[in-house]
Amino acid sequence: MQYRNKLVVIIALLLGTTIHAQVTKVGSDTLYDVACWNVEWFGDAAEGPTNEVAQYDNIKTIITNSEVDIWGLCEVSNPTTFYNLLNELPSYQGVLSTYNQTQKTALLFNKDLFELMSSSLINDPSNPDYYNAFASGRYPFEVVLRTKIYPFDSVYFYVVHLKANSGSADQSSYNRRANASLYLQQFLNTQRANKKVIVLGDFNDDVDQSVVRINGSYLLSPFQNFNNDSTRYFFPSKQLSLAGETTYPNYKPINMIDHILTSKALSDSFYVNQSAVVLKQLSAQISGYLSNTSDHYPVLARFNLKRYPKVIPQDTSKKDTIPNTGVLEFSQVGFNVYPNPSQGIFTIDADVNIQNITLYNLLGEEVYTNQPIKNARVFTLPEHVKSGMYMLLIQTPTINLYKHLHVLRY
Predict the structure, then answer these.
(1) What is the spatial distance between Cα 322 and Cα 268, in angstroms, rounded to a whole number?
(2) Rounded to whole angstroms, how far apart are CA atoms 293 and 308?
């Protein structure tokens, strides 16, 4: 067997094939794994790695073997190559951004865990600086996914690829990133308040301090506005910056420029504390990774979306202490909802007092709420609640319960 392995290596070297060790699984079977990765001019034969076949094979191997649930990709530079890759990833579905620049962003997701609700570019035509701030039209790519596994919820993903530097003292590019950060924050504050938000991608700058140095001093992070708004936002990847990690090892001095940002609606109750990690082991698993696959390492964070505490606490602990409690299946507490589907009138059988019921559409938006009188069990939905699938939240003195409700009006 030893001689056979040597023969395989010799043949592969003669054929010019990349030799790599087994790319290991990093995805969790019980958590949701979210990663971002700049795949360096993927699909562009004139830029990036010169061996397109090797790069394609390595990227496919990494995504397949790692079993990460969500991939936010940057520098996808050939739509045909992207869709060819997607066809060879049977566990994933994906969407590609539609802006004009060659280096596009994309999102891949495990189709057994998520379903696609919508995708769009975030732009404000009333603000002429949006185009300049977001790297001449590389607008944030919004992808809304809904979980398929109980409890059901919607998560808003934003894949970003901000303006790169043209030198260590590039004040102009720094200003563009800082403006982009402000515009994105304004959008999220006004349009996606209290939503579960994950911003991920190539930020081209760090979050503890900037990579830009003027007159011998590093500038504040261009994303300081998010750092300052700690009641609403959190960078899981900041712990990596503070620990001296890097996702772009060819750049000196060492800095993190690929990041994951979450809303506090996610980080306080669902982020698995201290789970952010740089997948730098890929350099050991794929020979010549930085030259034949990508000049960036992926960064990953984990979330437990099964946590639904009745009150979301502030993130004051460094330990992962939020219990996986607060939501039970109906069968565990003697609840029943019928008929289901209904024509807008349904009955709830319950052994405990119902304090409130709320109906949400598949985007997580509230469409109906009711505080029933004591012992009320029959509910009639207003006419504005159209036919469709909804999530029914039933609040009791001791627990919150969720149930799919199918409304079928004739």
Answers:
(1) 8
(2) 39
Backbone angles phi, psi at 46, to 5 degrees: -90, -15
**CA dist 409 → 188, 386, 389 (Å):** 34, 7, 12
What are the start-end ranges of the H helices in 94-170?
130-133
Q: 71: which residues sit within 8 A by CB, 6+ positions away?
A: 35, 36, 37, 63, 92, 107, 108, 109, 298
Radius of gyration of the chain (CA): 24
Residues 243-280 pLDDT 10s = 999 999 998 888 999 999 999 989 888 999 999 999 99
First to last CA, the chain: 69
In the chain, how many H helices and how many E strands? 11, 21
Whole-angstrom Cα distance, residue 360 to residue 72?
27
Q: Find all residues with CB under 8 Å of 59, minimum gap 6, and list them.
A: 39, 42, 85, 293, 294
Tokens 């001019």 sit at which residue? 41
Hey, which residues does 144 pair with through a beta bridge?
Answer: 118, 156
Taking residue 362's Cβ as centre, other Cβ atoms within 10 Å add up to 17
Evaluated on CA atoms 32, 38, 40, 44, the torsion sign reads positive
- The phi-psi region of residue 274 (left if phi > 0; otherwise alpha if psi is between -120 and 50; otherwise beta) is left
SS3 content of the chain, % helix, strand, coil (to 5): 20, 30, 50
The alpha carbon of 369 is separated from its chain's Cα centroid by a whole number of angstroms, namely 29
Which tokens hold the place of 105? 């962003």
DSSP state of 271: B
CB-CB contact of 64 with 322 (8 Å): no
Mean pLDDT (10-residue bins), the chain, 410 residues: 40 45 90 97 97 98 98 97 96 95 98 93 94 98 90 91 95 98 97 95 98 95 97 97 96 93 91 96 97 98 73 36 32 64 83 80 78 75 86 74 76
- 300 has which bridge partners? 35, 277
Domains and CATH numbers, the chain: 20-303 (3.60.10.10), 330-407 (2.60.40.3080)
| CA separation for the pair 374, 370 (Å, rounded) | 12
